[in-house]
UniProtKB/TrEMBL annotation:
Domain of life: Bacteria
SUPFAM superfamilies named among the record's database cross-references: HlyD-like secretion proteins
Family statement: Belongs to the membrane fusion protein (MFP) (TC 8.A.1) family.
Sequence intervals crossing the membrane: 12-29
Keywords from the named record: Membrane, Transmembrane, Transmembrane helix
Gene Ontology molecular function, alphabetical: efflux transmembrane transporter activity
Protein name, UniProt field: Uncharacterized protein
Gene3D superfamilies associated with the record: 2.40.30.170, 2.40.420.20, 2.40.50.100
InterPro entries attached to this UniProt entry: RND_pump_MFP
GO cellular component labels: efflux pump complex
Organism name: Candidatus Roizmanbacteria bacterium CG03_land_8_20_14_0_80_39_12
Length: 348
């Protein structure tokens, strides 16, 4: 019998080795699993820094952002910009063909000159009221009406000249802001356009801001001047701080639900890195406390308006009522009831 066992060990030693290694691995896994379970169901009270923060999503927008178009249809005679060009405030960027309106202006000026001569002639042909050599006072009323009609005709001629001059001004397109041209619908002169076809879009990169929305429970926690940390999706490894300079008083239109807009200014020295419509998040620190007693919120139970935990002491579990302070994601400040080093269990 002993010989058979020895022969088996000699010839099948690797089987025993596998059994020993497998058994050791199994026992080790059991210990690890038990330790994890114990760790998940118990918590040692300690001191940590704790802060309450609010994170909100948004995108890059610009305060100075315009879409320009002509008031009337016409033939596009000149385009002075292309996408990416820098423009100055009140710079002319495009023009319509002005030949027709300039001819109309000349015609109106001639009509004005003719009307002016007629007006002066009517004044010379009619004496002042009271100087007429007749006892018929109706003549004075007739002369007054002749002079008034002449004045009305002159005023109408002046208005015609001014309106035609406005048409010339409207045939030129000016930018009301400094900035960069980001869109040109009609790039080439010589084409006929309608008022809606030839659009020019310009933004001022120095006025970029991060626009976010907050619901009615979140907006009350924010105020102008608060500092926020920006984390843009385009630069996930970089953060930038900015000040909240605008909080709307009315809900933002076009949104589902009642939400309000907030704005954080983008620093001018970094504005060139960002583009309109880039998305990201901004985080605000609402409150912060350092080196306070905390426990995980999952260990806290409720009993009416009271809070309590189960504390492990001398191998037993006891119910301890606690008073809580600041609450954040996952952590709760403990003002009284437990101390550092106490072991809290999830439940009985």
């Amino acid at each position: 019998m002993k010989k058979n066992v020895l022969n088996f060990v000699k010839t099948r030693w690797y089987v025993l080795l596998i059994l020993i290694v497998g058994g050791g691995f199994y026992l080790n896994q059991q210990k690890i699993t038990q330790a994890k379970k114990e760790k998940e169901t118990t918590y040692v009270v300690d001191r940590q820094d704790i802060k309450e923060s609010l994170s909100l999503a948004g995108e890059i927008q610009a305060d100075e952002h315009v879409v320009l178009r002509f008031q009337t249809s016409g033939r596009l005679s000149w385009v002075g910009v292309k996408e990416g060009d820098l423009v100055k405030k009140y710079q002319t960027i495009a023009s319509l063909d002005q030949r027709e309106v300039r001819k109309n202006l000349q015609k109106k000026l001639l009509t004005y000159a003719q009307t002016r001569n007629s007006f002066d002639q009517v004044g010379d042909d009619n004496q002042r009221i009271g100087d007429q050599p007749t006892n018929d006072w109706n003549w004075g009323d007739k002369m007054k009406r002749l002079l008034e009609n002449a004045q009305y005709g002159l005023n109408s001629s002046v208005l015609d000249v001014e309106l035609t001059n406005l048409s010339i001004e409207y045939s030129n397109l000016y930018t009301p802001i400094d900035g960069i041209v980001i869109r040109v619908d009609s790039k080439y002169a010589g084409v006929n356009i309608t008022a809606a076809q030839a659009e020019f879009e310009i933004i001022n990169p120095k006025t970029l801001y991060f626009s976010f929305t907050a619901d009615q429970t979140e907006i009350t926690k924010l105020s102008e001047g608060m500092r926020g940390t920006l984390n843009m999706d385009s630069f996930p490894d970089q953060t930038k701080e900015g000040a909240l300079y605008y909080v709307s008083y009315t809900p933002k239109s076009g949104e589902t639900g009642t939400v309000y807009e907030g704005r954080i200014r983008i620093p001018p020295d970094t504005a060139s890195r960002y583009r309109l419509g880039m998305t990201g998040d901004v985080s605000f620190t609402l409150s912060e406390k350092r080196n306070v007693v905390v426990i995980l919120d999952k260990f806290i139970k409720s009993e009416g308006d009271k809070k309590y935990v189960w504390r492990k002491k001398n191998g037993n579990q006891e119910k301890v009522y606690i008073k809580i302070g600041l609450e954040t994601d996952g952590l709760v400040e403990i003002l009284s009831g437990v101390e550092t080093g106490d072991v809290i269990v999830a439940s009985l």
